Amino acid sequence: MASRAAAPPPSDRHAERDPVLPTASLLPQLPDDVSIQCIARVPRFFHARLAYVSRSWRCLLRSPALFAARLSCGAAFPFLCVDIRTTSARSSWFLLDREPRNPRPLLPLPPPLLPTAGSACATLGPLLFVIGGSLDGATPTTAVQVFDVRFRRWHLGPRMGSAREFAAAGAVGGRIYVVGGCLPSSEPWAEVLDPDSGRWAPMPSPLDVREKWMHGSVVLDGKLLAVADHGGLLFDPAVGTWGSVSTALDMGWKGRAAVVDGIIYSYDFLGNIKGFDPVMDEWREVEGVSEELPRFLSGAALAELGGHLCVLWEGKRAKRGKEMEIMCAAIKVSREAAAGAASSGKLRGKIVWTDAIALAFPKGSSVSHCLAVEV
Amino acid sequence: MSSGDSGPSSSKQLVQQPAAAGRSPNQPPLLGAGGRKVIVLKSGDEEEFEVDLLDAMQSRTLRRAIEDGCGDGPMPLPNLTGPVLAKVVELFRRHRGDPRWADELQETEKEGMFKDYAPQKPTAEVKGFDREFVSVDRDALFDLLRAANFLEAPGLLDVTCDAAADAVMNMTVEEVREYFGLVNDYTPEEEAALRKQHEWAFQ
């Protein structure tokens, strides 16, 4: 169906065919080891341009060796993949990249191959998975679209066994798990993708845990947690067991959430950010941020970004009629220790940075997904 | 061994005084100001530099040589010139306690002979020194990069590679080729096609 769009442009075939580094040295004056160290420290924003220096530079910039070097020298900053949905239900992805020295923090991605809505998303290494969703706002699909942030290119991944929209998905132990988003009677209702074999395998699940729509999901401590219509689901892939989340968690969790440092963060109905500590089994308001953040952020998207809680919402200050403004804040949350006790469980937030990004989208557009990727 | 002598004045002396040549390998290690152990490094053009033994450990290459017992006489470094070695030795002194290399120390070493070398975040002064250190022309920067590679010194490599990356990132493709003497091996058609594909990168 999308084979035309999925075929790589002709100019890229050389690089596809020949992933090994050519014999020409990267910098004639230096050993290649050092050249790689130098090029690895150049912010990602400039990589696309540097690829035109020579064939050997192009190969290096696309090679695992460079990504390993960027990781080891601390130049690999995580960044966010952000999906903006316009009122016409069109999906547009952006990279929000706050790497130091990057002159342009927001980069548009090429459009996805399929115009899906209601997809579930997960990231695994440099890959963003956009799983299922409905086509034309009506027909759920089995398609999985994969974006490789290194090469800035979409391709179609392995198809699922069931068509899904509004499913829950998460990456655990190098595999992608997806549950629900289809009729409870569907087989498979839950399945798992092993990226090495490139196949989805059905996961057995008891009928009594199955529900149709999923309103949010997180991965916590190696388990996939999801908000279904009638309560929170918990799946432990290590042992293959299903259950429900604790009552306390269930009561305070209605949708979007993110996990940072073992705490689940979400919004309460008053628009305050709360954190759920699974050890204490209770929600606590994140104190110290309410003055700097607008209230009623219930439509905001949350993500973990480099150890910080990242919050994205639609700004109110759009100047011209055609522009929307995305606001973004990174919050460092610390758990306060009480005198005598090991921890009072109090969560105190400090805003590390905020950004306002103007986008040429009609007002009323919204952030539908927001995930961190690390390369 | 006494401690607390790492003030700038005494250390500066260590670096700038050329060492006395002609020591026999059987003599005990040199003692610098305050009783610290020092070793002597000899450049390819026969310049000698006294370096605090512990500062020299920032280089994996020197560290291996010292641990193999080569630190008693002047240690020849034939592929480093005097001016390059002088700069490197000064950087080692300024990077004392730099976590970039102190992280590599084993726990027992942190307790033992590196006791006074508690890792500390680079101060504004060290950062200023680093900036000044790489404010050199292209060929001098390549010399320092090659020295960092040969000496396997993480702190030195970090500073010099950052400088090279800074130089590259503000250049056009043509300037990068000119700077490094690289040949454009794309055909004009290929290059035009590539540029078209990634127009955003050239804006």
UniProtKB/TrEMBL annotation, chain A:
Domain of life per record: Eukaryota
Domain F-box: 27-66
Matching SUPFAM superfamilies: F-box domain, Kelch motif
Signal peptide (from-to): none
Family annotation (Pfam families): F-box (PF00646), Kelch_FKB95 (PF25210)
Alphabetized InterPro entries for the sequence: F-box-like_dom_sf (IPR036047), F-box/kelch-repeat_ARATH (IPR050354), F-box_dom (IPR001810), Kelch-typ_b-propeller (IPR015915), Kelch_1 (IPR006652), Kelch_FKB95 (IPR057499)
Ranges where the FKB95-like N-terminal Kelch domain occurs: 93-357
PANTHER family the record matches: F-BOX/KELCH-REPEAT PROTEIN SKIP4, F-BOX_KELCH-REPEAT PROTEIN SKIP6
Protein name: F-box/kelch-repeat protein SKIP6
From TrEMBL, chain B:
Biased composition (Low complexity): 1-11
Pathway annotation: Protein modification; protein ubiquitination
Iron listed as a keyword: no
Gene3D superfamilies xrefs: Potassium Channel Kv1.1, Chain A (3.30.710.10)
Ranges where the SKP1 component dimerisation domain occurs: 154-201
A Pfam family this chain is assigned to: Skp1
Signal peptide coordinates: none
Domain SKP1 component POZ: 37-96
Keywords: Ubl conjugation pathway
Annotated region described as Disordered, given as residue ranges: 1-34
Similarity field: Belongs to the SKP1 family.
Subunit structure: Part of a SCF (SKP1-cullin-F-box) protein ligase complex.
Protein name: SKP1-like protein
